[in-house]
Amino acid sequence: MLCFKSNDNDVYFNLALDEYLLKSDLPTPILFLWKNHNTVIVGKNQNTYEEVNQKLANDDHVKVARRASGGGAVYQDDGNLCFSIILDKNSAMAKNYHTILQPIIDVLAKLGLNAQFAGKNDIEIDGKKISGNAQFQYKERLLHHGTFLFNVDLSKMGKYLNVDQSKIISKGIKSIPARVTNIKPLLEQDLSIDDFMDFIMQEFIEQGTVVQAIPDNIITAAHKLAEEKYRTWEWIYGKNPSFVFQNKIRFEGKGTLDVRMNVENSIIKEIKFFGDFLGWEGTEQLEAALVNCKYQIEDINKILEHFDLTKIFGDKFTRSEILETIVHK
Ligand SMILES: Nc1ncnc2c1ncn2[C@@H]1O[C@H](COP(=O)(O)OC(=O)CCCC[C@@H]2CCSS2)[C@@H](O)[C@H]1O
């Protein structure tokens, strides 16, 4: 087995590297270990607006990323370790999640941890999730990747993954919320996340795994893939499933502003304002101007700036109130 470790903690680059190792002609099995700075990574078929609290993530510079495998959304910081195992999909180990995760569970046992495979794709200790896993394939190869909650700030996890889903209707895959725990406080020894990573590597080395530097050509190709795919708006937001957004806000002393929208690939395709008052002029022009606008605050704001909103809404609603109604939090 070959083992690689990423020296970078940029999630977009690491996801590209992950994909590139899968698609490379390096011999399988491959073990790849990596860590990311603060990020929420959604599954391939998820809707970022339903899974990530965009406002809080933006404010705190938490990167939003989409991976190539299915499943739910996870939060990661420097206290999370990712592992990927790349296999020939016809090999005995690639049979199912159990067969792939058993060597990992064995390593955890050597640290005194009674970890078990649970649910569809989790590893748990005492009924609490410590690892979420997902897979994708390319030709004859299978990539299985998972997380380890080693010492993640769990209050932040709740903060960024907690989203009001009542305003959106979509066919996006929903995450499965779990009770979680970190590994570090369960250990008898005082280990850092890097010690934990070294321990895993050492265990695999004893079974014949060879640690290598990632070949330069793969690093170069991964940088390119990160720029062309993982870091782009088209991948992160453009791949969102279509959704309907409905929101109604009552502004004290002013009235109710009600908006309904159809959004496809995160582009507004239809939008209608409703309200409990008369005399709106130019609403249709505003609605028409918002069609084909990206569903993101900066772009919507730019369009609103071009309109004399008092002509449409009188002194009822300000630009920021209109934005608040349109943009999902
Ligand atoms: N980092 C991390 N690790 C484990 N579990 C997590 C994590 N963050 C959140 N969660 C919990 O899992 C659920 C979502 O569970 P769900 O089962 O819906 O999704 C997953 O587990 C996906 C795992 C993807 C692993 C990839 C490996 C390389 S990059 S990401 C979430 O609501 C939280 O309760």
TrEMBL record:
Matches recorded under PROSITE patterns: BPL_LPL_CATALYTIC
BPL/LPL catalytic domain location: 25-212
EC numbers for this chain: 6.3.1.20
Pathway: Protein modification; protein lipoylation via exogenous pathway; protein N(6)-(lipoyl)lysine from lipoate: step 2/2; Protein modification; protein lipoylation via exogenous pathway; protein N(6)-(lipoyl)lysine from lipoate: step 1/2
Keywords: ATP-binding, Ligase, Nucleotide-binding
Gene Ontology MF terms in the entry: ATP binding; lipoate-protein ligase activity; lipoyltransferase activity
Gene3D superfamilies, sorted: Bira Bifunctional Protein, Domain 2, CO dehydrogenase flavoprotein, C-terminal domain
Catalytic reactions on record: L-lysyl-[lipoyl-carrier protein] + (R)-lipoate + ATP = N(6)-[(R)-lipoyl]-L-lysyl-[lipoyl-carrier protein] + AMP + diphosphate + H(+)
Annotated CDD domains: LplA
Enzyme class, first EC level, given as a word: ligase
Any GO BP annotation: protein lipoylation
Pfam families in the cross-refs: Lip_prot_lig_C, LplA-B_cat
Coiled coil: none
Domain of life: Bacteria
SUPFAM superfamilies hit by this protein: Class II aaRS and biotin synthetases, SufE/NifU
GO CC entries: cytoplasm
The name this protein goes by in its record: lipoate--protein ligase
Source organism of the structure: Spiroplasma chrysopicola DF-1
